[in-house]
Specification:
single chain; alpha+beta; 2 domains; 4-stranded antiparallel sheet; two-stranded antiparallel sheet; binds zinc ion
Length: 231
């Protein structure tokens, strides 16, 4: 009885011990000397500050009492990433946490019965990897970096602005635009990962793009002929 009381008290005072192995594993495998982790036992929170060059993100994981039956909650405290990437990071991390504790809507017949899984490690892994990779990610087409070296100097040239595809790779707008608007118009893939390119901004059908391309080429031929004539 004394032992049970001791365990109960210990759990009340150290609520984070339910995920201590995950926290340690993150520290050992994912963090570098630039990153910090602070445990706040009193509020059952873990605060991470992850950096890559001049970029950083500080987020808090709130570990619920019912962990791991219930998922961790992710709160963003501070960051200097472009807004669109920040929204992406947090929504994807939240989705990863949800999938740990909620069975899939469509169950495959051969799947074993669903059991909630601890969500701290998968969530932090995703966020740390994102913070580490995006600042140094190069455009698959021109091989130059997409995010500016200095986060407080946003890209002013609209043609060089960032575009994120569904596969997760970053491109310069102009590189992607030229790539999509030149033939062949079907079966375009991301040169980095081989996934089909899909982007809301470029919804033209292959037929329409083909027609536009032919039209542009014809115009160019006419112009070339005029030049030939004048020379
Ligand atoms: Zn590029
Ligand atoms: Zn890709």
């Amino acid at each position: 009885m004394l032992m049970i009381n001791f365990v109960k008290e210990f759990l009340i005072e150290n609520p984070l011990c339910v995920c201590s192995e995950e926290i340690l594993s993150v520290k050992k495998k994912l963090l570098t000397s630039d990153d910090t982790v602070v445990l706040k036992q009193a509020t059952s929170k873990v605060v991470y500050r992850i950096s890559q060059e001049q970029y950083f993100m500080q987020f808090v994981l709130v570990v619920p009492e019912e962990y791991p039956i219930k998922q961790v909650k992710i709160e963003l405290e501070d960051h200097n990433f472009p807004e669109i990437l920040k929204v992406n990071f947090i929504s994807q991390a939240t989705e990863i946490a949800r999938k740990c504790v909620q069975p899939p809507i469509k169950k495959k017949p051969k799947d074993p019965p669903f059991e909630p899984q601890p969500s701290v490690l998968p969530v932090v892994k995703f966020l740390v990897e994102s913070v580490k990779k995006f600042p140094v990610m190069c455009c698959p087409l021109c091989k130059e970096r997409v995010l500016p070296q200095n986060p407080s100097e946003p890209v002013t040239d609209k043609r060089r602005r960032m575009e994120k595809l569904y596969c997760g790779h970053l491109f310069h707008f102009i590189c992607l635009y030229k790539y999509i608007k030149t033939p062949p118009f079907t079966g375009k893939i991301c040169p980095d990962c081989g996934n089909a390119i899909y982007h809301d901004k470029f919804k033209l059908s292959p037929q329409l793009m083909e027609a536009r391309w032919a039209h542009k080429q014809a115009r160019q031929r006419e112009l070339d002929e005029v030049v030939d004539f004048l020379e």
